[in-house]
Design brief:
With 496 residues, this protein is of the alpha/beta class. It is built from 19 helices and 15 strands. The radius of gyration is 23 Å and the shape is globular.
Amino acid sequence: MADPKGFLTTPREEWPRRPVEERVRDWNEVYVPGALLPLVSAQADRCMDCGVPFCHQACPLGNLVPEWNELVSREDWRAAAERLHATNNFPEFTGRLCPAPCEAGCVLAINQPAVTIKNVECAIADRAWEEGFAPPAPPERLSGRTVAVIGSGPTGLAAAQQLTRAGHTVAVYERDDRVGGLMRYGIPEFKMEKRHLERRVEQMRAEGTKFRTSTTVGRDVDAAELRARYDAVVIATGATAWRELAVPGRELAGIHQAMEYLPLANRVCEGDLESSPLSAAGRRVVIVGGGDTGADCLGTAVREGAASVTQLDIYGRPGDERDEEAEPWPTYPRLYRLSAAHEEAGVLRTAPVVDADARLFAASTLRFAGDGDGRVCALHLVGVDAGRRPVPGSERVLPVDLVLLALGFSGPERGDGLLAQLGVELSPRGTVARDAGFGTNVPGVFAAGDAARGQSLIVWAIAEGRAVAAAVDRRLTGAVSRLPAPIGPYDRPMAV
């Protein structure tokens, strides 16, 4: 512990965001550039280095939070970067995108604001790149074994980097034209600028990982032939089969899935398009779904110049404080959180029918109505109780020109032929079935990440990638792997 009284004398202070009126005019990250580093040493002092650090358990990566907090407090950035990268391949991703279950598990959070673990993590990662503390780490020798990783999201990238560094020859197959999966085309630029992703990909190329973009395994490449060419195959395609909203009027024009909308906005930022064909500019937008993807749509629509934006959440408004009986510490509580996008919508009053920000809580869609040309013009909704039962007399109508469905994902897509050609079995939930060693029913074929676990957080995705790499390495070498395996395939977040 650097400062035994730090948690008593230093209040929590987070990375400040840029003014709303400024940041909604561009696609840069929402935070004030350079404003984090002056904060983090004092914030790291708040870590109590407690005897049983539940932040370790709350994070599936097992991040060594008290260790790098102390090192940051002493401004030993090189050592802090080493300890951070010991458990996390991509801390600059998680430092920006993870909802920080580690902070919910912080012992200080029992009766005080938690340590700003996520901010400290991000500061270490950014400083490591600035100071050259994250050079490529190619293997000293090659094993002669080959691995195909299908999917270049956080799971696929983590697995590929671990296996490459272990000496195996790894090729990553990605169906899109650029590497990154949903981090590339699903996460808006204002949440994570893609330069962070490009930097890691270049590091991996320098280490020896090969990337095969614009290649859909199952269509462009036969999956069974791919299996025959490699010593092992890792399925890391994610859970990209989106959930539908089966209500009358769904067939009307102007109703789109979030993952039809967000990639186009990202392609504008990449320079591929001058403007998005689904741009929200001048339109009345309603987002169905109260999760992070819905918030990403919200921030994107605001930047595109929507006339209004409203987000529907079927759950009731969460409380401001943890419910100690329903969600006791150190579980991750459902609280009222104000993301950057919600803050923007509240300040700009994008949804005049709500009070605080763009959200309507406890709202369920009944049907859509169209105009004479077959385009959506209205959304009929009803209020619901805690059991999602309609509340009598609560029906209302929202005028709308563009509806975005952000209802989550059910599992891996099946239309490309990948799973059928490999012959892998599926679980009752529709995910890829696997054993305790991450292996499928097909010898040499492994499954990891959302494709097998189901929709989850980026920290779980990276942990899955690291763990499946250890399983593959064990099979290829026939010996105990030196690669870390932070989780097992059946591990789950802490819950009551």
